[in-house]
């Protein structure tokens, strides 16, 4: 049985990925400006993607979230375990999305290949700059 | 601006070269595309060549596109009929190299810019950039180059978007400002058109847009890079090696609440039915929706329901997803979802 969208009104508006992206981009840009000029280049090519998570995993040097679909071949999003608090927050959000069957939005810089040093392969993995549950 | 308009006017006139549009309806390439530079560009202008190669990586990050840079274009192989044959996919000419940037495109048998009598029509005498569409590749094998890229820029150097614009044409995209639904309050000459082969909603931030100063649109004369809609466009034109149906929504719900899943592409600005169509949302094998979304207000019983999502893109290529929808009784939902998530979410 099909019914009309129940996502109309302000909730539908706010849940729209395009609006979400604009809001989060503004927040990210504001954060970069607040941090200072050094932060600006790092955000220059960052982008949000939506992700249906299929698993999270932890290794000695990294954790990752794997998405059902890839973009430009990238379907793994990782973070270094060197920042344990950050990693814990990422895992919390990733696992919460899996438990709740929710979509994730992940901010990453496709040009940043530095994750290779922690086993995040350049061919299919990028570092997580931000993550949110839809 | 005059330069931009001149380029636009030229582009509109070019047969088989850059025209107005959205999806050009002139095909797509394979996911691996060779790129080379004609003449001595690689040695005489190495910095510009490397810059172009660096710029176009934005497309590789957005879609299943791999540019194979081969350096200087290979020499022609003369064919039995006397015509030249150039093997590179995208053969780029840039200014101030050993190959003239204007005039007839070199190559015996090259049909570009020839009138019906086979005479050069002088429409390549300017410095305006252009690119062939994907489907023009074989027809123009006799041409030494099939993408002409100027150094258009400002004090910071050549525009990023200008390079992305021409390579966007080479990938099958056309002019964003020539859409029938171009809706910026803009009265400049050249703004608007009749094209309806939409991939995404109208996007004034697209690199495929020309510059319209009075409208506040810089388009291809800027350094903003691919817009989100540009990225989605090439993501659709060049599917990933495993084409997964992408949707957003919640697939674990408490019994009594509704299920609402929707196409991620449409959510991000993809046009339906032009760019994505023939949706099939199935629960336990039963077709529930053929719309861009699945909305179900009530499930009679808690349980696990198989979810299958299928659709096709504008070129008829299929995408699919198989997973589950879990409908949990209130107590189970609290135990399996609410409580564990609540325990995880506090910041550490």
Account of the 3D structure:
The complex is a heterodimer of chains A (134) and B (348). With 134 residues, chain A is an alpha+beta fold. Chain A is built from four helices and six strands. Chain A has two domains: 44 residues, no CATH class; 89 residues, OB fold (Dihydrolipoamide Acetyltransferase, E2P) (Beta Barrel). Helices cover 36% and strands 31% of the residues of chain A. In chain A, strands 1-5-6-4-3-2 form a six-stranded mixed sheet, with helices on both faces. In chain A, strand 3 and strand 4 form a beta hairpin. The N terminus of chain A is likely disordered. Chain B has 348 residues and is α/β, with parallel strands linked by helices. Chain B folds into two domains: 236 residues, Collagenase (Catalytic Domain) (3-Layer(aba) Sandwich); 98 residues, Immunoglobulins (Immunoglobulin-like, Sandwich), CATH 2.60.40. Chain B has eight helices and 15 strands. A five-stranded mixed sheet of chain B has the order 2-1-3-5-4. In chain B, strands 9-15-14-11-12 form a five-stranded mixed sheet. In chain B, strand 6 and strand 7 form a beta hairpin. The longest helix of chain B is centred in the last third of the chain and has 15 residues. Chains A and B meet through helix 2, strand 1, strand 3 and helix 4 of A and helix 4, helix 6, strand 8, strand 13 and strand 15 of B.
């Amino acid at each position: 049985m099909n019914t009309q969208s129940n996502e109309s009104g302000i909730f539908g508006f706010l849940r729209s990925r395009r609006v979400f992206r604009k809001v989060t981009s503004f927040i990210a840009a504001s954060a970069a400006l607040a941090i200072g000029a050094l932060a600006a280049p790092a955000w220059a090519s960052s982008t949000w993607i939506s992700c249906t998570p299929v698993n999270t995993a932890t290794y000695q040097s990294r954790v990752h979230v794997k998405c059902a679909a890839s973009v430009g071949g990238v379907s793994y999003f990782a973070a270094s375990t060197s920042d344990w608090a950050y990693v814990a927050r990422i895992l919390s959000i990733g696992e919460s999305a899996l438990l709740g069957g929710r979509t994730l939005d992940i901010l990453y810089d496709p040009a940043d290949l530095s994750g290779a040093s922690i086993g995040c392969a350049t061919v299919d993995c990028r570092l997580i700059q931000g993550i949110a549950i839809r | 601006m005059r330069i931009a308009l001149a380029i636009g006017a030229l582009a509109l006139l070019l047969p088989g070269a850059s025209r107005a549009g959205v999806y050009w309806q002139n095909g797509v390439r394979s996911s691996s595309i060779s790129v080379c530079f004609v003449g001595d560009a690689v040695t005489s202008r190495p910095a510009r060549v490397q810059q172009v190669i660096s710029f176009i990586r934005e497309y590789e990050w957005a879609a299943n596109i791999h540019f194979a840079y081969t350096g200087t274009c290979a020499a022609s192989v003369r064919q039995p009929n006397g015509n030249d044959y150039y093997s590179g996919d995208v053969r780029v000419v840039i200014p101030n190299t050993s190959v003239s940037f204007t005039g007839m495109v070199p190559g015996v048998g090259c049909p570009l810019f020839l009138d019906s009598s086979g005479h050069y029509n002088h429409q390549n005498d300017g410095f305006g950039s252009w690119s062939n569409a994907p489907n023009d590749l074989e027809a123009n094998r006799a041409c030494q180059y099939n993408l002409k890229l100027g150094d258009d820029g400002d004090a910071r150097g050549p525009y990023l978007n200008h390079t992305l614009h021409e390579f966007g044409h080479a990938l099958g995209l056309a002019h964003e400002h020539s859409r029938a639904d171009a809706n910026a309050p803009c009265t400049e000459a050249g703004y608007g058109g009749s094209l309806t082969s939409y991939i995404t909603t109208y996007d004034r931030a697209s690199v495929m847009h020309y510059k319209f100063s009075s409208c506040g649109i810089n388009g291809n004369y800027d350094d903003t890079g691919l817009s989100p809609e540009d990225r989605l466009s090439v993501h659709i034109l060049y599917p990933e090696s495993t084409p997964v149906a992408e949707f957003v929504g919640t697939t674990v719900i408490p019994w009594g609440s509704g299920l609402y899943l929707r196409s991620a592409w449409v959510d991000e600005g993809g046009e339906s039915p032009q760019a994505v169509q023939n949706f099939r949302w199935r629960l336990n094998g039963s077709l529930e929706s053929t719309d861009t979304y699945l909305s179900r207000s009530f499930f009679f019983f808690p349980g696990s329901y198989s979810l299958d999502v299928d659709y096709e893109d504008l070129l008829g290529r299929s995408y699919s997803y198989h997973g589950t929808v879990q409908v949990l009784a209130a107590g189970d939902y609290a135990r399996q979802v609410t409580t564990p998530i609540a325990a995880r979410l506090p910041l550490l």
